[in-house]
């Protein structure tokens, strides 16, 4: 058999070391074709091992992403339900009454529970599902220092200020116009009256849930049959395995 003429390229073949001495050496005037040395064979093996390790890393990363996706699946289901509920609220609910029970932690201190009766009215725009404004009335029952306090915010009235009757044990009938986001109104509260209501609560939950999905570092536990008052509910617990800076 005639030896091949190799021009303009080099071909390297990896074979076991014992077979290297049996390979012919073919030369041409422009370039040579030589059998690989043991060093080249070792480099090829190392390259194969490196490729295998990199593939293993990719598989591990893929498995980790899949695991995170499974952990967050209940959150996606919650967000689908929340978006459907928000659409229903905007399209069907114009006013309602409710009882608010809240307990807030401010500057690391857990405050006293608050309870109030509330009336909420949504003013609709030209489109059936559009909401342009909201009016809110609150009457506090607890704690004793706030019992009887009344707050009225009417959209488009009083330059956007709340009409407040103090209540409580001293100067209960004192009434004044108060800026909703001012120091006096925000004393003992983390959220202004603009954040009040079922519709705004759903909107905030959607914003929060979408942010958690984008970060992808949360886990969700679901517990059905939880009793709240006289109602049986489903509890969703969002867990951060690693503490966040703002927590």
Output the keywords.
28% strand; globular; alpha+beta; 247 residues
Your description of this structure?
- It is a single chain.
- The protein has 247 residues and is an alpha+beta fold.
- Helix content is 31%, strand content 28%.
- The chain contains 3 helices and 12 strands; from the N terminus they run ββαββββββββααββ.
- The chain has helices at 38-92, 183-186, 198-215, and strands at 26-27, 32-33, 95-102, 105-106, 109-110, 114-124, 131-142, 150-153, 162-165, 175-178, 219-228, 231-239.
- A hairpin with a 2-residue loop joins strand 11 (219-228) and strand 12.
- The radius of gyration is 35 Å and the shape is globular.
Describe what is shown at a glance.
This protein is an alpha+beta fold and 247 residues long. The chain has 3 helices and 12 strands, in the order ββαββββββββααββ. It is 31% helix and 28% strand.
List how many beta strands DSSP finds: 12
Strand content: 25-35%
Q: Could you estimate the helical fraction of the residues in percent?
A: 25-40%
Multimer state:
single chain
Query: What order do the helices and strands follow?
Result: EEHEEEEEEEEHHEE
Structural class: alpha+beta
Radius of gyration computed on alpha carbons: 35 Å
Overall geometry: globular
Strand arrangement within the widest β-sheet reads 3-6-7-8-9-10
Q: How many strands, what sense, and barrel or not for the largest sheet?
A: 6 strands, antiparallel
- Low-confidence residue ranges: 1-36, 58-68
Counting DSSP H or I runs of 4 or more residues, the number of helices is 3
Mean pLDDT: 74
Distance between the termini: 78 Å
